[in-house]
Amino acid sequence: MIQNQSQYRNTKNQLAEFERSSIELDNNPDKLSPRLLTAQKAGLQVLIDRLKVQMAEYERLQEGVSSLEIGSLDDLPIAIIKARISLGMTQKELAEKIGTQEQQIQRYEADRYAAISFDRMMKIVAALGMSLKNGMEIAIDSPKERLLRRQTLLRRQRLRERQRQPDPVPPIVG
Fold first, then answer.
1. Could you give the angle at the alpha carbon of 95 between the alpha carbons of 90 and 96, nearest 5°?
2. Whole-angstrom Cα distance, residue 104 to residue 90?
3. 10 Å Cβ neighbour count for 84?
4. What is the pLDDT of residue 1?
5. Which of 22-26, 43-47, 53-57 has the lowest mean pLDDT?
6. What would you measure as the largest C-alpha separation in the chain, in angstroms?
7. Measured between alpha carbons, how far is 137 from 71 in angstroms, rounded to an integer?
8. Integer Cα distance of 160 and 167 in angstroms
9. Helix axes 118-127, 91-98, angle to 10 degrees
10. For 24-28, which contacts have Cβ atoms below 8 Å and span 24 or more sequence positions?
11. What is the mean pLDDT of the chain?
């Protein structure tokens, strides 16, 4: 997820580089086998599509949204980041509103607010003007449901960790 203008610019530059590489592959300068050429083009296209989706989401948020829907409390950190972007607020501006440093907000967002106190999170939510719409129903799970929820949470955390790691870039020939 793109979280600021710097990341947006970097993503845009990376997209342009991938698109140039894809065009270069059309000429097959290294005389790759059709199978290898197709695989490299497909790999580049996956990366191009992924970057375009991320950029489109960031652009949509920058235009402003009036509400964000979350399916569970696990989605709250992403909703906080999206709310900040939608309000046109920088990480620095949010930091100033809650009396901390910009780097702290950067760390919170990079870690998806994993190590934040409840009190600090409530300050951020208030600074962003976030509130519940139509209340909230809290489900109390049975032991079996808790185990399934815990397993799902662990899978999501592992997925988020993998998403934070840079995408492996297929070798670009030429």
1. 100
2. 13
3. 23
4. 92
5. 22-26
6. 62
7. 11
8. 12
9. 110
10. 24/172, 24/174, 25/172, 25/173, 25/174, 27/174
11. 89
Cα separation, 67 vs 108, whole angstroms: 22
Least Cα distance to 44 among 72, 20, 27, 28 occurs for: 20
How many Å apart are CA 121 and CA 55, to the nearest integer? 26
- Measured CA to CA, the distance from residue 85 to residue 94 in angstroms comes to 10
In 3D space, the residue among 111, 92, 96 whose CA is nearest the CA of residue 4 turns out to be: 92
Residue with tokens 């600090």: 120
Taking a C-beta distance cutoff of 8 angstroms, is the pair 55, 12 a contact? yes
CA dihedral of residues 83, 70, 56, 82 (deg, nearest 10): 20
- Taking residues 21-46, what's their average pLDDT? 88
What percent of the chain has a predicted confidence (pLDDT) above 90? 61
Q: How far apart are the first and last CA of the chain?
A: 30
Whether pTM exceeds 0.85: no
CB 18 within 8 A of CB 44: yes
